[in-house]
Design a protein that fits this description.
By secondary structure, this protein is α+β, with helices and mostly antiparallel strands. It is 20% helix and 42% strand.
């Protein structure tokens, strides 16, 4: 499903390659809550620990500010994805709630699913 206002983003270059990462940023809700955006990210494991995810996250946050978005909410950050949780916290996100057993992880079984938020 692609919501109105979806904005794909990517990070590419000599150090990362053409398909090392991607993101999709959308308004999280319509109407009176349309000032809150959400985004989805994916980084090729071959490019982990190279700053690609951080660069993409910073880009999406900056673009959201330019678009007049007032806050960013991530609806589904798997609590065992400690790299992602640490990255988003370092960029100013807070865990607002955790859905117990909200994600069925192939190695860890049912684990929590964080909802993370930050004002822009």
């Amino acid at each position: 499903m692609r919501r109105s206002g979806a904005r794909p983003s990517g990070v590419a270059g000599p150090r990362t390659g053409p398909s090392s990462a991607t993101a999709n940023s959308v308004r999280n809700h319509g109407g009176g809550a349309s000032h809150i955006s959400s985004a989805s990210f994916m980084v090729d494991p071959a490019h982990w620990s190279r700053g690609v995810g951080r660069a993409l996250g910073e880009h999406v946050l900056e673009q959201a500010r330019k678009d007049g978005i007032r806050a960013m909410q991530f609806n589904a950050v798997v609590e065992t994805n400690t790299r992602a949780v640490a990255l988003w916290r370092s960029l100013g996100f807070e865990v607002m709630a955790t859905l117990p057993e909200g994600f069925h992880h192939p190695a860890h079984g049912y684990v929590g699913l964080h909802i993370m938020y930050r004002r822009l």
